[in-house]
């Protein structure tokens, strides 16, 4: 007891425990925290080699990577930024990825055989993808011609067969080539949007005009008018969309080696994205003009361009691994169009006229095409902002290179 009192008395020197045991202040701190402190040698090794722990956490990524660029993209996907790389004594993520790639042994550090390295993708599948992208437009043009050259029951048969053929061709085009993506299915809402572009304006005009009696001349057979030109132009634009998607992906991949940092890469890829987007809109505007002139219908650029932009951006996001925003915005856009039609019909009930007032005001100002133009335009603008943030990241392009 006297010994303990001597130790507790102020000014009495404390005898340190042996190095490496659980005594002394370190032992007391470990006991209070409930965990064992790491050995000092391990701390010194970690401080001397900060990349070693990062290698351990991302070893699988480093072992399967075919080049340092893929490691950089994977690190970025896990939240590693250029500022984080500075803590590992590197100026940016690309420099850090190069060291990690060099330090991971592969097959006993033996030279890789030519067949073990990344092989270039053959041109055959790519060419097949572009050929498939032409099919929807060709089949849709044939179906439109068949419907216009027939009458009665044969016209109905041609229309049904044409719709099925175009649907199957669209599915095949989206499963191969630059527009292929392992994403959640959006075919239901895409078909709704295309169907509304074909029939929605006429149905909305019919509902607002009081039924078939209010239809314009030339539709006395009881059917509401259809707008074929935008749908034909959109199916024909599958080939330009595939070309623009390929140009964007290839251009972004070429920017990876010359970029010295994630910010540098993003700033160099953003013009590529906007350029490919503008190129597609230009091609779609030309197709809208052409189909409108051939079919004798208004070109209807606002509705066609906003719908085409919406569908292209949703597909680009899915192609590059971002599979949530596209389906969500497509669903919301289709819901807005359906709600617009529903409110018009609900407004005809007694005492519910206020429900259709917003749609009536929009149609009075912009015509029936104002509803899909507003819905698709807001959706396309939302996806464009999202794409400028997501598709300019390095991780969005390394993943496509491995899956294609």
Which helices and strands occur, and which strands form pairs?
Blueprint: H1 2-8, H2 24-33, H3 40-48, H4 51-57, H5 59-64, H6 68-77, H7 82-87, H8 93-103, H9 123-149, H10 153-175, H11 187-209, H12 228-236, H13 238-258, H14 262-295, H15 301-319, H16 325-346, H17 357-366, H18 370-390, H19 395-403
Helix pairs in contact: 6-8, 6-19, 9-10, 9-12, 9-13, 11-12, 11-15, 11-16, 12-14, 12-15, 13-14, 14-15, 15-16, 15-18, 16-18
Number of contiguous helices: 19
Structural class of the helix and strand makeup? mainly alpha
Average of pLDDT: 77
Profile the largest sheet.
Answer: none
Report the end-to-end length measured between terminal Cα atoms: 77 Å
Rg: 31 Å
Detail the poorly predicted runs.
1-38, 40-46, 108-122, 216-222, 400-404
Report the helical percentage: over 70%
The total strand number stands at: 0
User: What is the H/E string?
Assistant: HHHHHHHHHHHHHHHHHHH
Task: Determine the oligomeric state from the structure.
Answer: single chain
Query: What is the molecular shape?
Result: elongated
β-strand percent reads: under 5%
Description:
With 404 residues, this protein is mainly alpha-helical. It has 19 helices and no strands. The N terminus and C terminus are likely disordered.
């Amino acid at each position: 007891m006297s010994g303990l009192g001597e130790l507790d008395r102020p000014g009495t020197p404390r005898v340190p425990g042996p190095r490496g045991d659980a005594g002394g202040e370190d032992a007391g701190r470990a006991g209070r925290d409930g965990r064992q402190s790491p050995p000092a040698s391990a701390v010194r090794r970690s401080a001397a080699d900060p990349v070693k722990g990062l290698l351990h956490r991302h070893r699988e990524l480093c072992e399967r990577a075919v080049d340092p660029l893929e490691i950089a993209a994977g690190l970025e996907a896990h939240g590693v930024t250029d500022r984080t790389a500075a803590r590992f004594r590197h100026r940016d993520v690309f420099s850090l990825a190069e060291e990690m790639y060099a330090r991971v042994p592969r097959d006993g550090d033996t030279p890789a055989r030519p067949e073990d390295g990344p092989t270039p993708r053959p041109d055959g599948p790519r060419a097949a993808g572009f050929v498939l992208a032409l099919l929807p437009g060709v089949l849709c043009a044939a179906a439109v011609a068949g419907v216009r050259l027939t009458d009665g029951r044969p016209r109905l048969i041609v229309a049904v067969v044409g719709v099925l053929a175009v649907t199957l061709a669209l599915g095949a085009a989206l499963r191969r080539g630059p527009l292929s993506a392992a994403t959640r299915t959006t075919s239901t809402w895409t078909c709704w949007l295309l169907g509304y572009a074909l029939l929605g304006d006429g149905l909305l005009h019919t509902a607002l005009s009081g039924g078939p009696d209010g239809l314009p001349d030339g539709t006395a057979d009881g059917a509401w008018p259809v707008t074929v030109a935008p749908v034909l132009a959109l199916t024909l634009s599958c080939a330009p969309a595939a070309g623009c998607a390929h140009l964007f992906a290839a251009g972004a991949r070429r920017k990876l080696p010359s970029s010295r940092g994630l910010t540098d890469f993003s700033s160099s890829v953003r013009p590529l994205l906007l350029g490919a987007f503008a190129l597609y809109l230009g091609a779609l505007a030309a197709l809208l003009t052409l189909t409108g002139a051939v079919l004798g219908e208004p070109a209807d650029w606002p509705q066609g361009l906003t719908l085409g932009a919406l569908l292209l951006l949703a597909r680009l996001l899915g192609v590059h691994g971002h599979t949530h925003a596209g389906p969500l915005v497509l669903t919301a856009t289709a819901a807005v169009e359906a709600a617009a039609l529903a409110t018009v019909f609900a407004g005809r009930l007694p005492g519910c006229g206020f429900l259709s007032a917003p749609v009536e005001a929009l149609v009075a100002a912009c015509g029936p095409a104002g509803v899909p133009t507003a819905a698709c335009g807001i959706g396309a603008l939302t996806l464009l902002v999202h794409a400028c943030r997501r598709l300019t990241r390095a991780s969005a392009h390394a993943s496509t290179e491995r899956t294609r």
